[in-house]
Amino acid sequence: MIEVKGLYKDWKEFALKDITLQVKKEEYFVILGPTGAGKTLLLETIAGFYIPDKGEVRIEGRDVTSVPPERRRIGFIYQDYSIFPHLTVEQNIVFGLKLKKSSSPDTNRKRVKEIMAWLSISHLAHRYPPALSGGEQQKVAIARAIAIEPSILLLDEPLSALDLRTKDYLREELKRVKEEFGITMVHVTHDQTEALILADRIAVMMHGRIVQVGTPYEIFNKPLTDEIADFVGVENILHGVVRSNEEGIAEIEVDTGTILAVSEYRAGDVKVCIRPEEIILSESRGESSARNVMRGRIKELHDMGPLTRVKMDTGLVALITKQSRENLRLRRGDEVYATFKATAVHVVR
Amino acid sequence: MNLLLRWSVEKLKREKIFLLSLFLGLFLVAFVVITLGNMFYQQAEDVDGLIAVALDPVVLKAIGVSLSMALVSTLIAFLFGVPLAYFLARKELWGKSIIEGIVDVPLMIPHIVAGIALYGVFMRYGLIGAPLRRLGFVITDAYPGIVIAMLFMSFPYLVNSAREGFKGVDPRLENVARSLGASHWRTFREITFPLAFPSLLNGAILSWGRAISEFSAVLVLAYYPISAPILIYEKFTSFGLRASRPVSVLLISVCLVIFVVLRVLHRRSK
Amino acid sequence: MERRKILLALGILMVVLACIPVVVFYTHLVEVQEPKTVKVFHAGSLSVPFEEAERQFEALHSNVNVQRESYGSVEAIRQITEVGKSGDVLGSADFALIPNMMYPEFADWYVRFATNDIVLAYNSEMSHYTDEITPENWYEILRRDGVTFGFSNPNLDPCGYRSVMVCKLAELRYNDARIFEDLILKNTAITVSEEDGTYVIQTPEQLEPNTGKVTIRPKEVDLTALIEAGGLDYYFIYRSVAVQHGLSFVDLPDEIDLSKVEYADTYKKVKLQTAEGNTKTGKPIVYGITVPTNAENPKLGLEFVRFVIGESGQKIFADNGQPPIVPPVGSGNVPEELKSLVQLEPGESTPTPGTTPPPTSTPTPEEPGFEVICAITGLMGVAYLVLRGR
Predict the structure, then answer these.
(1) Which end of chain A is more exposed for a tag (fewer CB within 10 A), N or C?
(2) Domain that holds residue A331
(3) pLDDT-derived band at C359, boundaries 50, 70, 90
């Protein structure tokens, strides 16, 4: 459990202003915010790399504000992996273990082996970091951090430098870490999808302040301010059940119909996310390569400068340009077809 | 090996900018090779003179003095310069650029001026010389004098190179090490120092080379015990080029061998 | 795109290089109006009066730039005879070095124009026992424990061997046979032998000074810095240097200070053999000046010599503690332009054209500058063509 109270810190061009947070035990907590919001600084201050100008940090009830980082039992993972380049993978992972009072070479070796096996990196044991891919390096960083059995793992944009496939894969690994070891995770990111998928709770951070804390549903569907709404991008989040899956195309049943999506899931409850700008509105069904067509009535039209937000009775929200709004002569109550590609649908559990 | 060579030639052909930079850069290399080559060539006509010099205990002692005192100077520069460099690389504080400027000063002042200034401080009534003398240490015209003159003229090379080396070590690596339970000191020893080591070694090599070549400042502070550059100067003044050149050739040869070996080690350490 | 830029850079480089010969050619034409340079190599002890002479000389000749380089006398001569630099004027603190080291190839005449003498200078604020020291007891003071003294390297600097000679001459003057032993022999590797009332001092290459007592430096100027800093109590130095630096000094008796022609016979009793094997004989300190045969501007060099030995020069030297010789004494093949100013030395044979090769213009090797530039341009051209061919 982490408690942060009235934290202030000025460092270079970044600043933390009156940060107050509570992260519950074994919670996956995501701090979401745009670049430059001070997220990394907050994480580094919690880790003890910086001493706050004001305020306090408590971990498991203990005031650690002036405790040096090496005595906080916190794992830390950076975006650029920060693997020690002069040590092999094995030496990297054992680094923290060797520093423990209770350690012995034998138990250390055993523990490292277990962790490497668990993360499927045993074959990399004697390689040096520059010879590893980004994903492999990040797994080593995770292995190294959890080797010391921390109660808390702080992750600073851990997936941002990875390609899409690796990102998906490692995201699952992170979930697995949390479940297997019961570690409290604090994960900083600017990626809304990542936050949505991983978080038990999300804190939105802007200009050095925490502006909203809540469940992903609350954050994405009930943003407190326009600025937050603008940043998180109001998502279409629908609950559904996977009915079938053929060659990677899943058929998902939602309240208002069936959606086809590119997904590996074969069954079970899922969340379906579609970004509003991916949805195209038309008057007739028409011929389109898009796999999904949903009919609905316009409930609301919201003018947003060059764009218009269209809310339909099916629960979908679309963003269209002024031009197409005029071409379609959209009015409240009109019946329209919403089409979107199967690839535009993001399925998460 | 062969394959590697072919590969690099192929690569050079493809990357013309490197071809151009190699071509232009060779002018500087040629500059050194021609100058020293000419000297060695002239000496080659007088091999007996070179052998005689190589067997002369006075010459050998002078070269020994230069090499060893330069080593001592470099070790001292290392001991004090590395912490300073670490501080300068990691900490921001008011007046830091003043400190950096001060470190660079020895690179700019004429060596003779430095020598006289050092003499003023380290002579028997000098600010530092006087208390040291009471303790029984004589600086002028003694080994410590040589070391001090060399140190003053050469340490900036080490500090500057080390500072860049430490700057090149991502502070996040240090953060991670500390989060894993390593104390600050241990982090420095096991992470920062080994990663910056190639730069530290590079700085030490530069500093050592600069120390060996120091003449004017050493001359003012410690003409005796005679070090190699002073011996060369003396030989030139009293006997002319024929006498001084073989000593120079010998000194340069010894240094060249040591430098090449150190450079190989330096590349390995990377 | 990339390639085009590289080719452009190469092209510009070629144009620049091609311009160099043109520029060189034109600057040659223009050079006539450029200021002319007089290159002067001289003994360190001539620095101050020559600097003043330079100032006045340049004021008289608006188009002339005097460039001086100061060395020990031997070293100054070696710059010309061994390093191969060309000098328009050479001033030595020991006139005899000119015939000994430069005749006949690099000089065939010289003029003696000023004198100097050795004093024992000190720092009036920091040196020990300055309130006690007199011309009669100075050697007693130097003997005392804790008193340090210095002289320049006898092998490298005339001031150095003269200092050593002074110590030997002091034995005769003060009737104390242990002065030289106590001051020099005990503290250095210098040795001395006697033959028929003449003393021959040997200075080995390695002087091995007892650095706690004796400080040796290559040049007298190096020692001056140490005295001014206060690290050294006393040193033997030319009067001129002491005067110019405002140092206090003990004015040593005429019999030993190498100042007076009257005592030439006394001075002669001490000889010194340097490590190189040259024998120096004690004699009054007399400066010599010449125009080396390899001068690039011999006319201007001669003009500078005329100025130095003339009336204005004499005044400068008198003010600086280096009494001028009036009239100056010429020796050897003294150029016509100077004959009116100097008294030719009687008895010394003037080298005749028969015995000494006339100062021929040594065939200077053709300057390789133009060819080198052509070669570089050519290479660049080839490189350009090769790159373009791809």
Answers:
(1) C
(2) 236-348
(3) very low
Q: Which residues of chain C neighbour B237 with C-beta distances below 8 Å?
A: 72, 74-75, 78, 155-156, 218
Does the pLDDT at position C371 exceed 70? no
User: Model ipTM?
Assistant: 0.77
In 3D space, the residue among A81, A75, A187, A174 whose CA is nearest the CA of residue A134 turns out to be A81
Q: With CA atoms as reference, report the closest residue to C245 among C344, C139, C121.
A: C121
Q: Are A82 and A122 members of one domain?
A: yes
Q: Which residues of A touch B182 (CB under 8 A)?
A: 70, 95-96, 99
Calculate the average pLDDT of chain C.
85
Instruction: Lay out the sheet containing A62-63: strands in order across.
Output: A14-23, A2-11, A54-59, A62-63
How much is the pLDDT for B60? 94
Q: Choose, out of B176, B184, B200, the residue to mutate when testing the contact with A (most A CBs < 10 Å).
A: B176
What's the one-letter identity of residue A246?
A: E
Query: Is the Cβ of B179 closer than 8 Å to some Cβ of chain A?
Result: yes
Instruction: For CATH 3.40.190.10, list the domain ranges present in chain C.
Output: 34-116+287-344, 121-281
Q: How is residue C354 annotated by DSSP?
A: T
* Number of folded domains that form chain A: 2
Contact between chains at B240 and C206 (C-beta distance less than 8 A): no
Determine the straight-line distance between the first and last CA of chain C, rounded to whole angstroms. Answer: 14
Residue C270, phi then psi, degrees to nearest 5: -110, 125
Q: Which chains would you list as touching A if contact means 3+ CB atom pairs under 8 Å?
A: B
Q: Which residues of chain C make contact with B224, given a CB cutoff of 8 A?
A: 208-209, 211, 216
Fold of B49-269: MetI-like fold (1.10.3720)
Answer yes or no: do C156 and B241 touch at CB < 8 A.
no
Taking residues B48-76, what's their average pLDDT? Answer: 94
- Parse chain B into domains and list their residue ranges: 49-269
Chain B closest CA to C175's CA: distance in Å?
33
Fold of C121-281: D-Maltodextrin-Binding Protein; domain 2 (3.40.190)
Q: Which residue in A24, A59, A52, A25 sits closest to A38, CA to CA? A: A52
Write the pLDDT tens digit of every residue in C159-188: 899 999 999 999 999 999 999 999 999 999
The first and second tokens of residue C277, run together, are 């094997």
Closest CA to B250 of B76, B62, B124, B110: B62
- CATH at A329: 2.40.50.100
Same domain, A94 and A124: yes
Interface probe for A, chosen from B172, B173, B174, B179 (most Cβ of A below 10 Å), is B179
DSSP state of A130: G
User: What angle in degrees, to the nearest 10, is found between the helix axes of A105-118 and A89-98?
Assistant: 130
Q: Which two tokens stand for residue A79?
A: 């975006």
- Write the single-letter amino acid at C235: Y
C149-152 vs C214-217, strand pairing mode: parallel
Q: Sheet holding C149-152: strands in order across?
A: C214-217, C149-152, C234-238, C118-122, C248-250
Give the largest Cα separation in chain A, rounded.
Answer: 75
DSSP per-residue letters across A187-212: EEES-HHHHHHH-SEEEEEETTEEEE
CB contact under 8 A, B241 and C82: yes
Chains C and A touch, using 3 or more CB pairs below 8 Å: no
Indicate the SS3 state at residue C231.
coil
Rounded average pLDDT over A190-210? 91
The answer to whether residues A192 and A219 touch, using CB atoms and an 8 Å cutoff, is: no
pTM of the model: 0.73
Contacts A70 to B, Cβ<8 Å? 178-184
CB A339 within 8 A of CB A314: no
Q: Which residue of C has its CA nearest to B236?
A: C75
CA angle C173-C174-C180, nearest 5°?
Answer: 90
| CA–CA distance, A306 with C325 (Å, rounded to integer) | 101
